[in-house]
Amino acid sequence: MRTGSSMQKRRRVRRLLTVVVPIGVWLSAIAAAVHLHRQLGSTGAATGFADRQPVTLAHPETGVIRGVHVGLYDHVTRGQILVSLDDHKERIELAAVEEHIERLRAEVVAEQARLVADNGRATADVEDLARRFAVDRDAAHIDYLAQVAINARDRMLLRGAAVEYEIAQDLHDEEHAAFRELNEMRTRVESLEANLTESTALLDRLKQAFVEADRRRFAFEERRKVDALLEPVLAPLRLSIDVRQRSIDEIVRRIDAHVLRAPIDGQVTAMLAHAGDHVQGGDLLVTVSPTAADRVIAYLPEHMILSAGVGARALVNCTPGTDGARRAYPGTVVSLSETVDEAPPRHRQAPTYPVWGRGFVVALDSGITLIPGEAVTVALLERD
Length: 384
Fold this sequence. Notes:
Elements: H1 2-42, E1 45-50, E2 55-58, E3 63-68, E4 75-76, E5 81-85, H2 88-173, H3 179-222, H4 230-257, E6 259-261, E7 266-271, E8 278-279, E9 284-290, E10 295-301, E11 313-318, E12 327-336, E13 341-342, E14 356-364, E15 375-380
């Protein structure tokens, strides 16, 4: 009887240990996690993960897929072509606009050649008129100078004849000269006076003619330019070409929009597109997931929500490598939520223990990258 009673006691003890010990282990683990969470919070640290946000590309509008240039799980680089869409309408429109531009350019060349020829003829005519005005001015000047010489000669002859007439008059008064000689001298003086009067009148007319010819030549030289007619005629054509060129730029942008390129360096993790498929606008075609992350997403616990701001420096601590070397990288807080929200389960030290805080993003310093999804601890550094 005693033996059976002792065996029953041992069975009850084993059952109790089987139930109590696991419960105790779980309670200890939870208590340790909560303590660790509070300890990290009190030291200005938060749990975070390297950003692993994938990018999914969609068809911009209804159309047909012309070609798929990558396969599932292919590694791609930023800007690499992933999918090309049908763009034959845009290319037909582009060809028509380019042809129109070529016609306009040919028209500009032809119009410019015509205007240059017209200007050449006009320039020749202007040069001919310029020569005529110069010849007229020089001829008037020569005539005027010649008449100045004639007028001076007539004055000189008149003064000589007047002196001779006075001498003859004195001789006649003293009865040493005949009246006939005195009469001839007087006739000569009167003739020279008449010539001088006519010569002086002609000199005034020639001087006025020279002044007028010089004025006409000067006025012509002031307005003889003829090249200013080119731009007013060609400007509308050039403006039309510029308008068509802007249309080409717009069409090229639309054609480029039909080519989906990798937005990041990463790996193709979903491929929903196949050549020849007819898709609607907004249909998802390909997903690219990053293979390296240069930023960390974390949550500030409630008691730390006022301890950080955009621009604050941080230290990102990663799990040591196989060699046991410590990995800690500097970074800067580049984004901080304005509200306090419940953190996703992965950001909790214990899955069943809710955590509230402000989400923030730390950008690692240039050249530093982590494995997307890698768990880290973010320690906020005190400001200087």
